[in-house]
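# nightly structure sweep
# worker-07 picked up a monomer target from the shared queue
# config: single-sequence mode, recycle default, output format = structure tokens
# input follows
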Amino acid sequence: MLSEDRAQKCAAFVLDKKAFNVRILDVRKISSLTDFLVLASGSSDRQVKAAADSVHLGLKNGHDTMPIGMEGLNEGRWVLIDYGDVMVHVFHEPVRLFYDLDGLWCDAEEVPVQEDTPATAQASS
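# output follows
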């Protein structure tokens, strides 16, 4: 799976759990850490956990892809899921505003999120 396709699938999985302010940032030209960042917000710790679980289980079950690492799921304030080429950050909105990764990565090119296909359909493609 191409990195951008993986990022789009991650975005679809968080959107499936009603995450908001979902952005995909292409950081290939400005970072050697990863290719894409997926940033998303939830309105509660429960929603943050659900969105992160959706990404983890969607890629695991639908694409046989496991993350390199996953942090913050127990607290539900900021969950990081690292797939190497794609890093997914799901935040409780006040935490996202405080840490301002959107501002930190403001030089990254934003990739439009393809919201027309539900995650369940993308998982089978």
